Input
Amino acid sequence: MPSPTTQDLDQHIISKWNLGDYLGVIADCTRAIELDPKSPDAYYIRGNSKFELEDYTGAIKDFTKLIELEPENAEAYIHRGCSKLYLGDYTGSVADYTKSIELVLDTDVVDADVYCNRGNAKSGLGDNAGAIEDFNKAIELDPNNVDAYYNRGKSKTELRDYSGALEDLSRSGELGDAGAYEAIREIQRHIKVMSNH
Output
């Protein structure tokens, strides 16, 4: 039986990805890497598959290899930054998102979610003022970004800007985030307790 070609593997990978067979995608990408160890697409797809399976450490390894092969690949930094965010490596996440923004700003507009995710990482570091700046930018780029309003509201809560937090959380709720209303009730209970003391 002949060995599969890279083109044969590409078709298998696409089919398996569309079916959500991420373990199959990983196996096929691993074979593609064995055929061509410098295949950026195989590392990218395998890294995304590992991310989907919540193997964030494995995803980081693949995105790091992709960055070694293509140091100007903004998407690789975005996906590695997201993996680091999920692992709680907020400093590494901020660095990767910042690098992706620097790379993309030279050629295109940065996606609002990149700013939103970097804001989440900054919030994780306790830099709520910096997080709010990123959420502001995300909202500027996408005025209907539910997550940016919600997360900006949470950061404003941390800074005790309850009025601003309630406004942002209310907007997030209006845009469809039902969880925002529970956050609003939590702030209102907190304000009530504070006013009683």
Remarks:
- The first helix runs from residue 6 to 19.
- Residues 1-6 have pLDDT under 50 and may be disordered.
- Residues 49 and 114 are 20 Å apart (CA to CA).
- The chain is about 80% helix and 0% strand.
